[in-house]
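**Discrete fold encoding**
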Amino acid sequence: MPPPLLTLQDIHLTFGSTPLLAGANLTVSAGDRVCLVGRNGSGKSTLLRVAANLLTPESGRRFAQPGATIRYLPQEPDFTGFATTRDYVEAGFDDAVGDRHRADYLLEQLELTGSENPTRLSGGETRRAALARVLAPEPDILLLDEPTNHLDLLGIEWLERELASLRSAIVLISHDRRLLEKLSRTTVWLDRGTTRVLDQGFAQFESWRDALLEQEELEHHKLGRKIAMEEDWLRYGVTARRKRNQKRLADLHALRKRHKERRGAVGKVQMEAAEADLSGRLVFVAEGVWKSFGDRIIVRDFSTRILRGDRTALVGPNGAGKTTLLNILMGTLAPDQGEVKRGTNLEAITLDQRRETLDATQTLRDALTGGHGDMVTVGGQNRHVIGYMKDFLFGPEQANTPVGVLSGGERGRLTLARAFARQSNLLVLDEPTNDLDLETLDLLQERLADYAGTVLLVSHDRDFLDRVATSVIAAEGDGRWVEYAGGYSDMLAQRGPLRMAPSPAARTKPATPAAPRPAAPARKRMTFKDRHALETLPARIEALQQEIAKLNAAIADPDLYARDAARFQRTTAALATAQQALSEAEEQWLALEMLREEIEG
């Protein structure tokens, strides 16, 4: 068996008074696929920087095989001294003669020309240039810290294929569960400063971790009982034999010290959404919406209907117009043509991906209380801010910490804490998964599944979309948006993989576009017949549903056709008629309900 390419042994590093790494280990051999997992703030990025030889630990040993090439992808790359993105990428070859074709291929695949000025790159372009630089030389070891940040779904799926095709060993930190499951073959869990290794991929990690934590709690409980027994002996059994039992007494003190100094597992985020009164049944109705910027059509003749309780995701490549469409639905941007109707009694909360709602100069306490005392109102009830902070894994000592010095994950948790304290029946989430660890993501998914209101979601996290979304509105190119039932995987099953956005020339508006259909004149009142139908349709819908259930039960009889073919035919025909009638009744009720809400709202 060949020796490892990279070894970290017993790495110790302390920030402030808290040990961040307390005996961490990492071994990487040729062709390994390692995912490094752990809570936000557990030291994953720090350990990766030690592996990249960018940070010197206080103690421990780092050994890399002579001649082994190691490339590290930082979360914030440094472009100092480079005039173009091509210069930056080709510098990744170091002194070796770089393969220009390889650099050209990566720049093209990552939608860069190579002539971009690094000082003018967007967040997504910065990340793509950094990826091209570390991938270009095909090193022996790739150290990747959140490589999917700022990438859209197309970019993530390309990166997944590219990494799978490399012969390089890979050590990967990511919150993208799907990427971890597909690429990893070994899982290293960094927990309370130390590492534990599972010789399987991430798909098996969570059950393994839960079993370890359960066993640890059991051992801690046994330790507590042993201390209680020894203390009982100390009180009643040593009066005549004190000298002979000094060792046992010393052991008791050691047990107490071990019990006291144990670092328990980091708790789980306690997350509850404060819900407002229910909104109207219809939340958004868009009809024939168009939107252009210059000659480029962003939204072309788009229509949709979003009901209370729906969790609708907008997906597509960067630049497709997801945020534009979201703003049109929310009413912060007017369409060029068409109409968007919003339901009654909406109380919306928006979580922006850049955390722009956070004031970096505020303390954590003031950010949650609005600068008013020590109480925060959650769902109409007052709670002490320290207790509420603990729900989101903030310690009491962080109450006066400025928001500006919080990590990305901590800012993400703070944004969630502020949002969920407010009453709402509509959540608008723009890339909510950025910087959240996997455990926090799990809980966010559970809370969204239980949320009684409506959710509008923009995300590039495929697993998150599958777990949360009830429908997906996908960019199809040329300003066309199509809605699919289910999550991301359901969308792919119905329409195939996402395609690259067409070139700018192909996206321009034709010289003489077909005029969109004229909007029907709005009805201003409800007739007696309309009101009567609105009152009676729910009962009719329920009756049709019961009839359909009976007919389905009859057809489910496997012997019906053989026993009475004519009855089988009559039952089948009746079922089709009932299903058609139900569909028409539901459509009529929704149209009348929309009209009523428009008039009364």
